[in-house]
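Entry 12.
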Amino acid sequence: MQTCLLFGLLIGCRESVSPIVVVKINPYLPSEFPPIDYPADNHFTSERWELGKKLFYDSVLSVDSSLSCASCHKSELSFSDDVAFSKGVKNRDGTRNAPSLANIAYHPYFTREGGVPTLEQQVLVPIQEHNEFDFNIVLAAERIALDSTYIAMSKSAYNRLPDYYVITRAIANFERELISNTSAFDQYHYEENLESLNQDETAGFELFYSKRTNCFECHGGSNFTNYSFENNGLYKEYPDIGRKRLTNLDSDESLFKVSSLRNVGITKPYMHDGSMATLKEVIEHYNKGGESHPNKSDFIKPLNLTKNEKMQLEAFLNSLTDYDFISNPKFKK
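Predicted 3D structure (tokens):
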């Protein structure tokens, strides 16, 4: 449903309006959620989902059996973590902030530089990374194949014994079902429940989708990201070269995949390196226009927001928290 009833949602209009006004369709607002696109060899079944969930929460995939996927992707935090860099095996520091897995099914590519084309392939990344699980998936499969429960579940789900194929497909099958779409914003926008956002959240909504802030340019769509690669002026000089690590192009230096803002109120710390602890810090960063960098996005400019407007924008961002999703028992261990 694209038609919205908004509190005076007119681009450029800054006056406070009390009554609800029916306005024309705002072209910047997200449309309905698209259907999930499953690979031909990994369509959803309850058996595959259950197997994937079991593997997601099992530390058997790390070299010393100390960590699971859920160690760094906690369900109560929208499947993200609450530290800048999650610890890997042997207490090794990670190199980037763990992103939320909410609505990961809609991402067209994976990792901060976008070098992994499928969710199935992405499952391999933490297993083999030295600073994460530091293991070999073939050896992990051999370990799993000693478990009679895994043997039975694997045969039921994929008609084969546990192996690398089963591990990657099953975990991807589970993760594709991590759909978050019942936040206060969703109730307001998709279900037209105008009582779900208060006055400050509605004012923040208007700011977010205005040409004054241009937040929607990168954080648009139903998943609040356009999946592009951007430099947001976090630093003048970045320790992490970002997408250039993949392409070796100077134009990609310190560009990172735009993160989804769904559940952003509970996925702190923020940025690719977890360097900002609060939404207030993030909003202030963008309000000031960021640091100078040759690859900085043209949309990152001083916003000159008032103290009240910054508070309203933060209120709207917090309305993206999906409490049903983060408390859903079916996603818990």
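Annotation: Confidence is low (pLDDT under 50) at residues 1-25. The radius of gyration is 21 Å.
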